[in-house]
Every structure is written in structure tokens, then in C-alpha cells.
Amino acid sequence: MTVRRSDSMRSDLLPAIYVMIGASLWGIIGIFTRSLYAYDVSPLQMTFTRCLITLVAMFLVILSVDKKKLRIEPRDIWMFVGTGLFSIVFFNIMYFTTQQMVSLSTASVLLYTAPCFVVVMSAILFKEKMTKNKVLALVIAFIGCVFTTGLGFGDLNIGIAFGVLAGFGYSLYSIFGKYALEKYSLLTVLFYTFLVATLCLLPFTDVPYVLGACMNTDILLNVLGLGIVSTILPYFFYTTGLRGMEAGKASIIAFVEPMVATILSIIVGDEFGWMNVLGIALILVSVIMLNTRKDTAFR
């Protein structure tokens, strides 16, 4: 009995660990974007290059592993339009627009309204239980995110609306991804997600300029870091974790992303105070709460 319980806990914990690894890798994206901004690489160009690199990588992996994973039924294209266009492309455009209108910390907090959308939609679409533990963890994690990033209330303008839209778009990956993973492999989901995203961004991207910019070694290294470290690997880990757990829980655990981003900002010399410490602690508490065995549903 003890061995079985231990194995069960380990199998339950593993998806959460995958999600945390993925979110942590998303959290260090600032290392690469900060360097690319210095070279006047636009947000749209960054989004296109990270999607293109992921698309090519997934294609090569599938060719070497199993070409059959490239096959999907035409009637299922809507799933990948959801993950690629409505999530990745839409949320990136909304998020970058938000960053231009409000502070970066406010934009980060608004992006993490996403778990609120995921928890509600998952309860409706996937019949996931709206438990007391989950709702409390969501509230604690969001408060922790506010403390960690330092929400500036002077930023209350139309940028808030764009930020909430970014959060909604961000949430759609967990929803459409959950549908896709019920039928297709991880590699298939990632390939078609980034195929759709790349094709949608292509008409708005100056490809010759992007390729020319990558002749600069520093730009190339940061583009590869953005594509591999902060796109391919995190989406691989997050999507793997999403396969083994509720979409609502996965989205809440992903709150470790702003926590990691804040820790990174400390390392590079940004200001850090007791509210940041409290925020990080609250996010960790919410993650622990979601991985405890006891929980009760609302009646």
C-alpha cells in the first residue's frame, strides 16, 4: 500500500514539475528580449523568429522519430488555429501592445489573469471540479504576482483592457491544447501550433531583414536562445505537464513564471524589496496547495 501510494504521488507530482520547468524557462525570456531590443529588433520580429525556430525544430524531430505524426484530420485544424492563432499570435500582439501602454510589471500582472479564465472555462468545457483549494490557490497566486512584480495603479488606462485580452489569449493555449492532446501526440500539437502561428505572422514580417539581422553573431545567439530556451523547451515541458493534469491547475502553477522573472531581475541589478519576497512566497504556497492530496469541491 505504501509503495502504491508513493508511486501515485510521484505520478501526480511529475506533471506539476514539468509545468514548473516550462514556466521557469518562460520566465528567463527577458535575458534574450532585452538584448534583442538593444538591436532594435521589434516584438513582431521576435515572435516570428521564435515561432519559426520552433516549427523547424519540431519538423526535424518528427522526421527523425515518426513521419506519421505529421498526419492530422482536416476536421481537427480548428484545434491548432486555436493554439496557434487565437493563443500564441493573439496573446503576443495584445501583450506587446500592453507593454507599450503600461509599465512592464502591470503588463505582467494583467497577463496572469489567464488562470482565472482557464479555471472557469475548464470547469465548463472539461467538467473539472471548481474546488476550494483551487480557487484559494488562484487568489493567493494572483496576489503573489501583484506583490512580486509591483503593480502600478497609475497605469489604469485602456492598456488594462489590452492586458486582460492578452491574459485571455494566453489562457486559450491550455484550453485548445487540452483538446488537441486528447487526440494527438505532443510533437504533433507543437508542430501544427507553430505552423499556424508562423503562417499567420509571415505576411506582417520583413523576412529578408530578419535573416540579415541574424548575420550578427550576438543577435543570432539571442534569437536561438529565444527560440530554443524560451520557446521550444518551455512549450515542450508545459504541454507534457498539461497532458497529465487539469488545465486549471497547470495554469495556476505557471505563476512561477513572473516569480522567476523577478528573481532574474534581481540578479541583473533591479530593485528588490520585502513585497517581492512576500509575493514569491505566496506563489510558492499556491503551488504547494495544488499538489496536496486533500481537497473539496464547492457544493
What features would you describe in this structure?
With 299 residues, this protein is mainly α. The chain has one domain. It contains 14 helices and no strands.
Kindly list the characteristics that best describe this protein.
single chain, 299 residues, mainly alpha, 14 helices, 0% strand
Strand residues, percent: under 5%
Uncertain runs? none
Output the radius of gyration.
19 Å
Assembly of the depicted chains:
single chain
The tally of strands reads 0
Number of H/I helices = 14
Give a quick account of the main beta sheet: strands, pairing sense, barrel closure.
Answer: none
Query: Helical amount among residues, as a percent range?
Result: over 70%
SSE succession: HHHHHHHHHHHHHH
Structural class: mainly alpha
Shape field: globular
Number of domains: 1
Mean pLDDT, rounded to whole units?
Answer: 84
**N- to C-terminal distance:** 31 Å
What is shown here, in short?
By secondary structure, the protein is an all-alpha fold. It is built from 14 helices and no strands.
What topology emerges from the helices and strands here?
Blueprint: H1 2-27, H2 29-38, H3 43-65, H4 77-101, H5 104-111, H6 114-125, H7 132-149, H8 158-181, H9 186-201, H10 207-213, H11 217-243, H12 247-253, H13 256-267, H14 274-290
